[in-house]
Amino acid sequence: MFGKRKTFGGNTQNPTHAAPKPVSDDPVSTEKEVSSPASKPIAKAPASQKNIAHDDVFDVNAADGVAHDEEYFKTKSAIFSALIDSIDLSQLATMEMESAREEIRDIVSEIISLKAIVMSISEQEDLLDDICNDVLGYGPLEPLLARDDIADIMVNGPQKCYIEVGGRVKNTNVRFRDEAHLMNVCQRIVSEVGRRVDESSPICDARLPDGSRVNVIAPPLAIDGAALTIRKFKKDKLTLEQLVKFGSISPEGAELLRILGRVRGNVLISGGTGSGKTTLLNCMTAFIEPDERVITCEDSAELQLQQPHVVRLETRPPNLEGEGQITMRDLIKNCLRMRPERIIVGEVRGPEAFDLLQAMNTGHDGSMGTLHANSPREAMARMESMITMGGYSLPSRTIREMIVSSIDVIVQAARLRDGSRRITHVTEVLGMEGEVIVTQDIFLYDITGEDANGNLLGRHRSTGITKPKLAERARYFNEESALVEALEAANVEEQRAGG
Predict the structure, then answer these.
(1) Of the candidates 462, 470, 398, 391, which has an alpha carbon nearest to the alpha carbon of residue 435?
(2) Three-state SS for 396?
């Protein structure tokens, strides 16, 4: 009935744009056509199912939050099969995204008409959008990825999907047809960066085109179905000014971070999962001079530096034979031969901490990195333990002396229990007293209470230091007066708050 189309209504005149990546097989099901759906429309789920498990299920559809039932998926599967038989996927791949989307919508509308499927206009629009997303995008995830207010997407098998909005985790009405549909979407995401996920390689880290971080863990390791986690990045990149507006840091603290980036201080950003370490690192790199050569090393490339002279490096997992792996240590060692002026490490997780400290201590001032820790002192202890894990038989004092001579400032980020993110410490590393590393806090965040809505109240305060160790470096870059002014202004604010 539907012969393969070789031309698409004159929409293939400009194949030079980025081509969509259509699927080559049915991502939702392999079921055949449903028998005579003309006699009854697609049934809606009962009203009692509208809130599937909780009263606060997040509805990704604007007005109609009805869960799709089995009949809907059967109809969609039949139309999808007819669509795949009707189009030339190689021709579709040469079209612009919008043109391909319009062509698919036209063909699907024609299929619905020829099969005499009865459905309302809103149901047909939902079906058209779903099929276009399955062919050209990431299926049911597309509405979530389109929203800029969602920070995390967490898929726990085909029937459960959660999101984080405004610091709160909420259930959604997003569902996949079955496990095969979910795995197809996962495979499509990771294949775009040259990786794969299946039973032989069930764990995979990847990224979306916009830099959003993706993790997939598939069966048999994930018992209840594939688990997909996406850490979304905002389309509009956050700046330090916006962090001040959101209350993540005080204006004086933001000025101190600006000066740190400007005077090429070695900075370690510490924090827990989801505390905003990568976002803060992106903000601080905005003050790197445009003529500096910056090299970034990451497990999955997510940093988005705006400087013109940036080289981005990414680790590589082993292949099927267990060969070809490129670790973070390999990247850091290699980038030392690439004439870097600054080295930015997305996250320090293992023995590469030793190579990063060596780089910071051998002329690569202004290098930055992040790691998981709950306080600045814990961050230094973790650095020491990670170096030890690498097999280095160095005395503890030697490792601590390396840390002291390499790191200038530790910035601690935290995600509080109400979902808000705050910079809780800006701490200088001063030196050694005996076997102990000496630090001093410049800025701290104090929690003062809680409002009626459960939101935590607090304030950033200065510790009263007006002449930090950083002042000498600031003088060299002609930023000493700005540093002193910021610290004095913070002390005035502290006196007012205390008075």
Answers:
(1) 398
(2) helix
- 3-state per-residue secondary structure call for 206-255: EECCCCCEEEEECCCCCCCCCEEEEECCCCCCCCHHHHHHCCCCCHHHHH
Three-state DSSP state, 361: coil
Task: Record the tokens describing residue 120, joined without a space.
Answer: 């309302």
Which residue is associated with the tokens 């399955």?
Answer: 134
* Ramachandran angles phi, psi of 469, nearest 5°: -60, -30
Residue-level pLDDT at 9: 40
Alpha helices, DSSP H only, in 163-219?
Answer: 179-191
Q: What is the rounded CA–CA span in Å between residue 344 and residue 365?
A: 11
Contact criterion met (CB below 8 Å) for 284 and 369: no
pLDDT average, residue stretch 295-309? 85
CA atoms within 13 A on the CB side of 173: 20
Report whether 67 contacts 45 (CB < 8 A).
yes
Say how many residues make up the chain. 499
Band (425; pLDDT cuts 50, 70, 90):
very high
Bridge partners of 440, per DSSP, are 428
Give the predicted TM-score (pTM) of the model: 0.72
| Three-state SS sequence of 412-472 | EEEECCCCCEEEEEEEEEEEEECCEEEEEEEEEEEEEEECCCCCEEEEEEECCCCCCCHHH
Contact 299, 347 (CB under 8 A): yes
∠ at Cα 35 (34, 41), nearest 5°? 80
The secondary structure of residue 47, as a DSSP letter, is G
Please return the burial class of 344, using the count of CB atoms within 10 Å of its CB with bins 0-12, 13-18 and 19+. Answer: buried
Residues 73, 178: Cα–Cα separation, whole Å: 10
User: Tell me: the pLDDT tens digits for 101-132?
Assistant: 777 777 777 777 777 777 777 777 777 777 77
Residue 62 pLDDT > 90: no
Burial class, 371, CB count within 10 angstroms (exposed 0-12 / middle 13-18 / buried 19+): buried
Estimate to the nearest angstrom the gap between the alpha carbon of 24 and the chain centroid: 28
**189/385 Cα distance (integer angstroms):** 35
C-alpha 259/C-alpha 35 separation (Å) is 69
Q: Are 238 and 283 in contact (CB under 8 A)?
A: yes
Distance between CA atoms of residues 239 and 369, nearest Å? 18
pLDDT by residue (tens digit) across 232-271? 877 777 888 989 998 899 999 999 999 999 999 999 999 9
Question: Position 362: which residue type?
Answer: T
The number of CA neighbours under 13 Å toward the Cβ of 11 is 21
